[in-house]
Write a structure and sequence with these properties.
Elements: H1 4-39, H2 48-84
Helix pairs in contact: 1-2
């Protein structure tokens, strides 16, 4: 086991990994469903309200991915700065 400083430095990477893995599945599946619905536009596979919800899921997943990226980068930057001080 590494020092507390090393473990703290790993936090950004752990955060990114643990959140982004399931988030990738959520976003990927939402995008696949949206593409399938667009391909079968006239078949009424989903109602307009359901399509809007699916688009919201995809948009929020992208937003969360960006938030995790910013938090992780800030954590790593802060940790690097503290280590070099």
């Amino acid at each position: 086991m590494g020092s507390a400083e090393e473990r703290a430095g790993d936090f950004g990477e752990i955060l990114r990994h643990e959140v982004n893995n399931p988030l990738t599945g959520i976003l990927g599946n939402a995008e696949l469903l949206l593409a399938e619905c667009k391909k079968k536009k006239g078949s009424g596979i989903l109602g307009e309200a359901a399509l809007q919800r699916l688009q919201t899921i995809a948009q929020l997943a992208v937003r969360l991915r960006e938030t995790v990226r910013r938090l992780s980068n800030a954590w790593e930057s802060r940790h690097d700065h503290a280590r070099s001080a």
